[in-house]
Amino acid sequence: MSMIFNKICSSHIFKRLLIRNCHKKTEPIKVSWKKPEIGWKKLNFDGSCKWETGKASIGGVVRDHNAQFLFGYAESIGKSNSTVAEFAALRRGLELVLENGYSDGDIWVEGDYKTLVEIIMLKKDVKCVEVQKHVSCIKVLLPEFRNFFVTHVYRQGNRVADKFARIGHELERPKIWHICPSEVVGIVKDDANGKVVLRMR
């Protein structure tokens, strides 16, 4: 009798633990875009790759501490992969920030490719020759700013850059916007208002 009771109890406890763990795994993560501090500019970047064609594009956006849109950029980079596209997007973004006269301030760089952040900030090794070239240029560009740091954000917090990267697929030549285009106005406003987007684990 006691053996049966123990089995029932053990089974009941196991089911409770299983249900509890399932709830933990399915609880969504709250993600939102964060404004930089006063005096800082924030560059969000992203790369996009269409697997069916192998063609890649890049895009990004720069905003200030009021979440004001300063400029956005996008371009097609031809046949490539998503990893190279991410590094190309960051490199191009930094070049444009400097070209637009923001080198005298502080820059917060943010993307949704975690490995890139680790390679840049933690100096992880890179085997791909093409990525190595981008990394070398990025490491030359970043010290041009007074202060900088690079962080990871989930895609839900990088939606404007993601949209620009996807727009890049449609372009025949590189494009820069100094006025926020209609395609991204809504997302820019959502970010400025601190809208939270849920991400499933």
TrEMBL record:
Entry-linked InterPro entries: RNase_H-like (IPR053151), RNase_H-like_dom_plant (IPR044730), RNaseH-like_sf (IPR012337), RNaseH_domain (IPR002156), RNaseH_sf (IPR036397)
Which branch of life, at top level? Eukaryota
What would be an example GO MF term here? nucleic acid binding
Question: Could you list the residue ranges that cross the membrane?
Answer: none
Extract the CDD domains matched here. Answer: RNase_H_like
Which residues belong to any copy of the RNase H type-1 domain? 44-166
Instruction: Please give the name of this protein.
Output: RNase H type-1 domain-containing protein
User: SUPFAM superfamilies under this entry?
Assistant: Ribonuclease H-like
